[in-house]
Amino acid sequence: MVVTVISTGSGAAAAPARIPENKSQEPKPQRKLVRTPYAIAGALLIIFMIYGYNASQRANPNPAANPIDRIVKQQRTTTINNPALHINALSSSYFKLVVPQGASSVLLHGNFTASGGLSNDVEVFVMPENDFVNWQNGHAAKTFYNSGRVTVGTLNVNLPADAGTYYLIFSNKSSLLTQRNVLVDAALTYYQ
To answer: Do 52 and 80 fall within a single domain?
Structure first.
């Protein structure tokens, strides 16, 4: 440290002025690179989380399911697999789907393919029990799914969590003469 004394003509002593020290000359302590293991661990954790999420999506066909249901409840599945459903002309065929009390995140998913006749088409509906009775009797009915006349279709129908009975209907009522053959591969999944 250097102290400079300045004298003035009046005889009064002035306070010594300080000269600032240059701190840039002092060497900085070197930091150890401890961040690298944490960065690697963080990257591995993110990769593991992405892998786990993708695996759960493949195992669970219902991505809209409540995450709490996935943890607390058990997933139940009712398979609808009929390789040769024959539907006569002016007729229909159906599957009865029962959703029990306490079920949640109810999903009907799968696909179907129709063949036979000139147009190879059917109409597919999903509706509750009361509306099914109305539909059978030619009255208006509320549907959760209505395919229109199609040859191939995909089912991805969210049903109410209330306990109830629903019907998956394959209709050949538009054909006057020919029967239709329908391949169905679908499932009703829910948490309970």
So the answer is: no
